[in-house]
């Protein structure tokens, strides 16, 4: 799963990840998602975007249960 904090700057990100997935699922523009979550640094954005595929698999798994 996603690390609790951004590797580069130490910002707490794990508590925002569920909301990020919700907004992505609703097809919100990515810049609006960053604004809503308060993510401003590229290093933190990278933490989210690099985990999308893994979470997609997890969501599929949950639906099957
Ligand atoms: Zn960061």
From TrEMBL:
Keywords associated with the record: DNA-directed RNA polymerase, Nucleotidyltransferase, Transcription, Transferase
EC number: 2.7.7.6
Record protein name field: DNA-directed RNA polymerase subunit N
Organism for this UniProt entry: Promethearchaeum syntrophicum
């Amino acid at each position: 799963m996603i690390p609790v904090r951004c590797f580069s700057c130490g910002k707490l990100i794990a508590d925002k990840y569920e909301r990020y997935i919700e907004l992505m699922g609703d097809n919100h523009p990515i810049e609006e998602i960053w604004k809503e979550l308060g993510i401003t640094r590229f290093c933190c954005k990278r933490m989210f975007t690099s985990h999308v595929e893994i979470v997609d698999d997890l969501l599929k798994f949950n639906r099957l249960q």
